[in-house]
Write a structure and sequence with these properties.
It is an enzyme of class 2 (transferase). The chain is 39% helix and 24% strand. By secondary structure, the protein is of the alpha/beta class. The chain has a 5-stranded parallel β-sheet with strand order 2-7-1-8-9, sandwiched between helices. It has a 4-stranded mixed β-sheet with strand order 4-3-6-5.
Length: 178
């Protein structure tokens, strides 16, 4: 059964690094979906499709999104292509939203494999400070949110060490899904 792999994790856990590494050498049966976001293309971070608010609303009205949500002042979506890829038997990995997991669970049911990329508080704090995007107060907020318990039925993926180790964990999980 093809799976929708819903990757979440706190900002600074390494989701973009993991996705970029997988794009370089993906498992044979895996496609990594781009998100459509109302954020400039050069905003940094993930490789996404930048849309204006008007274009986002237009595409939503045309039914071109499989899933959409609002977060951090932006609109996010996954295109309907993910459903076509799943129908072809391909696993689809997406950079998801922890808060919107219940909606995705309702829609995809047993095909959903929710993963949470985790790092220890010490590693997360160091990464957040190193990238220099947040104030100390914002970092404290991110650390508090990262300490919240995992949502039910999510599988942890530790990214404290080398990225290659995290990739190996993910590959093993994909070879032998729960």
């Amino acid at each position: 059964m093809a799976r929708l792999i819903w990757l979440t994790g706190p900002s600074g856990a390494g989701k973009d690094s993991l996705l970029n590494a997988l794009r370089e050498a993906p498992p044979a049966n895996l496609v990594i979906a781009h998100r459509y976001i109302t954020r400039p293309a050069d905003a940094g971070g993930e490789n996404h499709v930048a849309l204006s608010e008007a274009e986002f609303r237009r595409r939503a009205a045309l039914g071109l999104f499989a899933i959409s949500w609002q977060a951090h002042g932006f609109s996010y979506a996954l295109g309907e292509e993910i459903d076509h890829w799943l129908a072809r038997g391909l696993n689809v990995l997406v950079n998801g939203s922890r808060l919107h997991l219940p909606i995705v669970q309702q829609h995809y049911g047993a095909r959903l494999l929710p993963l949470v990329l985790q790092v220890s508080p010490t590693v997360l704090a160091a990464r957040l400070r190193q990238r220099g995007r947040e104030s100390d107060a914002e970092i404290d907020q991110r650390l508090a949110r990262a300490a919240e318990p995992l949502p039910a039925h999510c599988y942890p993926l530790n990214n404290d060490g080398a990225l290659i180790d995290t990739l190996d964990q993910l590959r093993r999980l994909l070879e032998h899904p729960p």
